[in-house]
Amino acid sequence: MNTLLKVHGLKAGYGAAQVLFGVDFSVEEGQVVTLLGRNGMGRSTTIKCLFGLLPPSSGEISMDGRRVERLASHQLAKLGLGLVPEGRQVFPNLTVEENLIATARMRSGGKLKPWTLDRVYGFFPRLKERRSNLGSQLSGGEQQMLAIGRALMTNPRLVVLDEATEGLAPIIRAEIWRSLGELKAEGLSLIVIDKNLGPLLELADKHYVMEKGVVVWSGDSAGLRANSRIVHEYLGV
Ligand SMILES: Nc1ncnc2c1ncn2[C@@H]1O[C@H](COP(=O)(O)OP(=O)(O)OP(=O)(O)O)[C@@H](O)[C@H]1O
Ligand SMILES: [Mg+2]
Protein backbone atom coordinates (compact mmCIF):
# COMPACT_ATOMS: atom_id res chain seq x y z
CA MET A 1 0.00 0.00 0.00
CA ASN A 2 1.03 3.52 -0.75
CA THR A 3 1.22 5.97 2.16
CA LEU A 4 -0.81 9.02 1.20
CA LEU A 5 -0.43 11.10 4.35
CA LYS A 6 2.09 10.86 7.14
CA VAL A 7 2.16 13.02 10.26
CA HIS A 8 5.17 12.73 12.52
CA GLY A 9 5.96 14.47 15.81
CA LEU A 10 3.39 17.20 15.25
CA LYS A 11 3.41 19.91 17.90
CA ALA A 12 1.18 22.97 17.91
CA GLY A 13 -0.89 25.19 20.14
CA TYR A 14 -2.52 28.55 20.59
CA GLY A 15 -0.17 31.23 21.87
CA ALA A 16 1.46 29.98 25.04
CA ALA A 17 -0.95 27.04 25.34
CA GLN A 18 0.58 23.95 23.76
CA VAL A 19 -2.10 21.48 22.64
CA LEU A 20 -0.29 18.92 20.47
CA PHE A 21 2.76 17.22 21.97
CA GLY A 22 4.01 15.06 19.09
CA VAL A 23 1.15 13.52 17.11
CA ASP A 24 2.00 10.55 14.87
CA PHE A 25 -0.33 8.87 12.40
CA SER A 26 -0.60 7.96 8.75
CA VAL A 27 -3.20 7.22 6.10
CA GLU A 28 -2.63 4.64 3.38
CA GLU A 29 -4.20 5.24 -0.01
CA GLY A 30 -7.84 4.10 0.03
CA GLN A 31 -7.95 3.77 3.82
CA VAL A 32 -10.49 5.21 6.22
CA VAL A 33 -8.83 6.39 9.42
CA THR A 34 -10.38 7.86 12.57
CA LEU A 35 -9.03 10.22 15.17
CA LEU A 36 -10.77 9.32 18.42
CA GLY A 37 -10.68 10.84 21.87
CA ARG A 38 -12.66 12.80 24.39
CA ASN A 39 -13.42 16.50 24.00
CA GLY A 40 -10.46 18.83 23.84
CA MET A 41 -7.77 16.20 23.18
CA GLY A 42 -6.47 17.94 20.06
CA ARG A 43 -8.26 16.35 17.11
CA SER A 44 -9.50 19.56 15.51
CA THR A 45 -6.16 21.22 16.23
CA THR A 46 -4.44 18.39 14.32
CA ILE A 47 -6.82 18.94 11.40
CA LYS A 48 -6.15 22.70 11.40
CA CYS A 49 -2.43 21.95 11.05
CA LEU A 50 -3.12 19.52 8.18
CA PHE A 51 -4.96 22.20 6.24
CA GLY A 52 -2.51 25.03 6.76
CA LEU A 53 -4.89 26.86 9.10
CA LEU A 54 -2.57 26.68 12.11
CA PRO A 55 1.22 26.60 11.81
CA PRO A 56 2.81 23.72 13.73
CA SER A 57 5.66 24.63 16.08
CA SER A 58 7.45 21.45 14.98
CA GLY A 59 6.89 18.12 13.28
CA GLU A 60 6.43 16.82 9.77
CA ILE A 61 3.42 16.41 7.52
CA SER A 62 4.00 14.62 4.22
CA MET A 63 1.77 13.79 1.28
CA ASP A 64 3.17 11.16 -1.08
CA GLY A 65 6.45 11.58 0.74
CA ARG A 66 6.58 15.30 0.05
CA ARG A 67 6.75 17.70 3.01
CA VAL A 68 3.71 19.97 3.06
CA GLU A 69 3.52 21.53 6.54
CA ARG A 70 4.47 24.96 5.26
CA LEU A 71 2.06 25.03 2.31
CA ALA A 72 -0.96 27.33 2.17
CA SER A 73 -4.52 25.99 2.13
CA HIS A 74 -5.03 26.44 -1.62
CA GLN A 75 -1.80 24.56 -2.37
CA LEU A 76 -2.92 21.70 -0.13
CA ALA A 77 -6.25 21.59 -1.97
CA LYS A 78 -4.33 21.27 -5.22
CA LEU A 79 -2.48 18.26 -3.81
CA GLY A 80 -5.82 16.61 -3.09
CA LEU A 81 -6.78 17.46 0.49
CA GLY A 82 -10.47 18.21 1.00
CA LEU A 83 -11.98 19.42 4.27
CA VAL A 84 -15.48 19.08 5.71
CA PRO A 85 -14.92 21.40 8.65
CA GLU A 86 -16.35 21.37 12.16
CA GLY A 87 -19.52 23.49 11.97
CA ARG A 88 -19.77 22.88 8.17
CA GLN A 89 -19.11 26.52 7.24
CA VAL A 90 -21.15 26.61 4.07
CA PHE A 91 -21.33 30.06 2.48
CA PRO A 92 -24.63 31.39 3.88
CA ASN A 93 -25.25 33.98 1.15
CA LEU A 94 -24.55 31.68 -1.80
CA THR A 95 -27.02 29.15 -3.19
CA VAL A 96 -26.36 25.45 -2.93
CA GLU A 97 -25.20 25.42 -6.54
CA GLU A 98 -22.94 28.44 -6.06
CA ASN A 99 -21.44 26.81 -2.97
CA LEU A 100 -20.60 23.74 -5.02
CA ILE A 101 -19.19 25.63 -7.97
CA ALA A 102 -17.14 27.92 -5.73
CA THR A 103 -14.61 25.18 -4.94
CA ALA A 104 -14.80 23.14 -8.16
CA ARG A 105 -11.44 22.01 -9.43
CA MET A 106 -10.45 19.37 -11.94
CA ARG A 107 -7.45 17.29 -11.10
CA SER A 108 -5.60 15.67 -13.93
CA GLY A 109 -4.72 11.99 -13.76
CA GLY A 110 -5.47 9.75 -10.80
CA LYS A 111 -7.61 6.65 -10.45
CA LEU A 112 -10.68 8.25 -8.90
CA LYS A 113 -13.76 9.00 -10.96
CA PRO A 114 -14.07 12.79 -11.34
CA TRP A 115 -16.75 14.71 -9.48
CA THR A 116 -19.03 17.09 -11.34
CA LEU A 117 -22.07 19.06 -10.27
CA ASP A 118 -24.34 16.38 -11.78
CA ARG A 119 -22.51 13.63 -9.99
CA VAL A 120 -22.80 15.41 -6.62
CA TYR A 121 -26.53 15.89 -7.27
CA GLY A 122 -26.85 12.20 -8.04
CA PHE A 123 -24.97 11.36 -4.85
CA PHE A 124 -27.11 13.70 -2.71
CA PRO A 125 -30.47 14.17 -4.52
CA ARG A 126 -31.57 16.42 -1.66
CA LEU A 127 -28.99 19.00 -2.80
CA LYS A 128 -30.45 19.01 -6.29
CA GLU A 129 -33.89 19.77 -4.88
CA ARG A 130 -32.40 22.62 -2.90
CA ARG A 131 -30.01 23.88 -5.59
CA SER A 132 -31.46 27.41 -5.65
CA ASN A 133 -31.76 27.82 -1.88
CA LEU A 134 -29.22 29.86 0.05
CA GLY A 135 -26.79 28.10 2.37
CA SER A 136 -28.44 29.85 5.30
CA GLN A 137 -31.82 28.28 4.43
CA LEU A 138 -30.63 24.68 4.73
CA SER A 139 -31.17 22.24 7.58
CA GLY A 140 -28.12 20.92 9.43
CA GLY A 141 -28.21 17.70 7.44
CA GLU A 142 -28.46 19.52 4.12
CA GLN A 143 -25.58 21.77 5.16
CA GLN A 144 -23.47 18.71 5.92
CA MET A 145 -24.31 17.15 2.54
CA LEU A 146 -23.34 20.46 0.95
CA ALA A 147 -20.08 20.58 2.88
CA ILE A 148 -19.27 17.05 1.69
CA GLY A 149 -20.34 17.89 -1.87
CA ARG A 150 -18.20 21.00 -1.81
CA ALA A 151 -15.17 18.97 -0.71
CA LEU A 152 -15.86 16.40 -3.46
CA MET A 153 -16.02 19.17 -6.09
CA THR A 154 -12.31 19.79 -5.45
CA ASN A 155 -11.75 16.21 -6.70
CA PRO A 156 -9.75 15.28 -3.61
CA ARG A 157 -7.75 12.16 -2.83
CA LEU A 158 -8.21 12.49 0.93
CA VAL A 159 -11.28 14.00 2.58
CA VAL A 160 -11.20 14.93 6.25
CA LEU A 161 -14.50 15.17 8.12
CA ASP A 162 -14.31 16.90 11.49
CA GLU A 163 -17.49 15.88 13.37
CA ALA A 164 -19.11 14.03 10.48
CA THR A 165 -22.62 13.74 11.99
CA GLU A 166 -22.68 16.08 14.98
CA GLY A 167 -26.10 17.54 15.74
CA LEU A 168 -27.88 15.60 13.00
CA ALA A 169 -31.07 13.56 13.30
CA PRO A 170 -30.56 9.76 13.23
CA ILE A 171 -32.04 9.36 9.74
CA ILE A 172 -29.69 12.01 8.33
CA ARG A 173 -26.76 10.48 10.17
CA ALA A 174 -27.52 7.17 8.49
CA GLU A 175 -27.49 8.93 5.13
CA ILE A 176 -24.08 10.47 5.87
CA TRP A 177 -22.63 7.11 6.96
CA ARG A 178 -24.01 5.50 3.80
CA SER A 179 -22.39 8.19 1.67
CA LEU A 180 -19.02 7.73 3.41
CA GLY A 181 -19.22 3.97 2.80
CA GLU A 182 -19.78 4.62 -0.91
CA LEU A 183 -16.85 7.04 -1.07
CA LYS A 184 -14.62 4.45 0.56
CA ALA A 185 -15.85 1.77 -1.86
CA GLU A 186 -14.64 3.82 -4.79
CA GLY A 187 -11.20 4.24 -3.29
CA LEU A 188 -11.28 7.67 -1.70
CA SER A 189 -9.21 8.02 1.47
CA LEU A 190 -10.94 9.49 4.52
CA ILE A 191 -10.10 10.78 7.98
CA VAL A 192 -13.30 10.78 10.03
CA ILE A 193 -13.87 12.37 13.41
CA ASP A 194 -17.17 11.60 15.12
CA LYS A 195 -18.56 10.73 18.52
CA ASN A 196 -20.49 7.66 17.32
CA LEU A 197 -18.14 4.75 17.73
CA GLY A 198 -20.46 2.12 16.22
CA PRO A 199 -20.51 3.44 12.64
CA LEU A 200 -16.79 4.27 12.84
CA LEU A 201 -16.00 0.67 13.80
CA GLU A 202 -17.94 -0.48 10.74
CA LEU A 203 -16.37 2.00 8.34
CA ALA A 204 -12.76 2.50 9.34
CA ASP A 205 -9.64 0.48 8.64
CA LYS A 206 -7.60 2.09 11.38
CA HIS A 207 -8.21 4.10 14.54
CA TYR A 208 -5.93 6.51 16.34
CA VAL A 209 -6.91 7.35 19.92
CA MET A 210 -5.72 10.75 21.13
CA GLU A 211 -5.25 11.84 24.71
CA LYS A 212 -3.88 15.25 25.66
CA GLY A 213 -2.23 15.96 22.34
CA VAL A 214 -0.61 12.59 21.61
CA VAL A 215 -1.75 9.31 20.05
CA VAL A 216 -1.95 6.77 22.86
CA TRP A 217 -3.33 3.79 20.94
CA SER A 218 -3.78 2.74 17.34
CA GLY A 219 -5.20 -0.34 15.72
CA ASP A 220 -8.00 -1.76 13.61
CA SER A 221 -11.66 -2.15 14.51
CA ALA A 222 -11.26 -5.72 15.77
CA GLY A 223 -8.44 -4.53 18.02
CA LEU A 224 -10.50 -1.67 19.38
CA ARG A 225 -13.60 -3.83 19.90
CA ALA A 226 -11.48 -6.25 21.90
CA ASN A 227 -9.92 -3.51 24.02
CA SER A 228 -12.59 -2.36 26.45
CA ARG A 229 -9.98 -0.67 28.64
CA ILE A 230 -8.98 1.73 25.85
CA VAL A 231 -12.59 2.38 24.94
CA HIS A 232 -13.51 3.11 28.54
CA GLU A 233 -10.41 5.03 29.59
CA TYR A 234 -9.89 7.23 26.54
CA LEU A 235 -13.26 7.42 24.90
CA GLY A 236 -15.41 7.38 28.03
CA VAL A 237 -18.01 4.97 26.66
N1 LIG B 1 -8.68 28.89 18.91
C1 LIG B 1 -8.28 28.41 20.10
N2 LIG B 1 -7.64 29.17 20.99
C2 LIG B 1 -7.22 28.67 22.18
N3 LIG B 1 -7.39 27.40 22.57
C3 LIG B 1 -8.02 26.57 21.72
C4 LIG B 1 -8.51 27.02 20.45
N4 LIG B 1 -9.09 25.97 19.83
C5 LIG B 1 -8.98 24.93 20.68
N5 LIG B 1 -8.33 25.27 21.81
C6 LIG B 1 -8.02 24.38 22.93
O1 LIG B 1 -7.18 23.36 22.46
C7 LIG B 1 -7.50 22.10 23.07
C8 LIG B 1 -7.78 21.08 21.99
O2 LIG B 1 -8.92 21.48 21.25
P1 LIG B 1 -9.41 20.75 19.94
O3 LIG B 1 -10.44 21.62 19.32
O4 LIG B 1 -8.25 20.34 19.13
O5 LIG B 1 -10.11 19.45 20.58
P2 LIG B 1 -10.90 18.26 19.92
O6 LIG B 1 -10.12 17.02 20.19
O7 LIG B 1 -11.24 18.58 18.53
O8 LIG B 1 -12.21 18.15 20.81
P3 LIG B 1 -13.72 18.62 20.58
O9 LIG B 1 -13.94 18.93 19.14
O10 LIG B 1 -14.53 17.48 21.04
O11 LIG B 1 -13.87 19.80 21.49
C9 LIG B 1 -8.69 22.37 23.99
O12 LIG B 1 -8.18 22.55 25.29
C10 LIG B 1 -9.26 23.66 23.47
O13 LIG B 1 -9.85 24.40 24.49
MG1 LIG C 1 -12.95 19.10 17.52
Could you please describe the fold and organization of this structure?
The chain is α/β, with parallel strands linked by helices. The protein has one domain (3-235): Rossmann fold (3-Layer(aba) Sandwich). Helices cover 35% and strands 27% of the residues. It contains 10 helices and 10 strands. The protein has helices at 43-50, 73-79, 96-102, 117-123, 125-129, 140-152, 170-185, 197-203, 221-225, 228-235; strands spanning 3-14, 17-28, 32-36, 58-63, 66-67, 81-84, 158-162, 189-193, 206-211, 214-219. Strands 6-7-8-3-9-10 form a 6-stranded mixed sheet, with helices on both faces. It has a 4-stranded antiparallel sheet with strand order 2-1-4-5, with helices on one face. Strand 4 and strand 5 (66-67) form a beta hairpin. The chain is globular, with a radius of gyration of 17 Å. The model has no long low-confidence stretch (mean pLDDT 95). The structure holds adenosine-5'-triphosphate and magnesium ion (MG). Adenosine-5'-triphosphate binds next to strand 2 and helix 1.
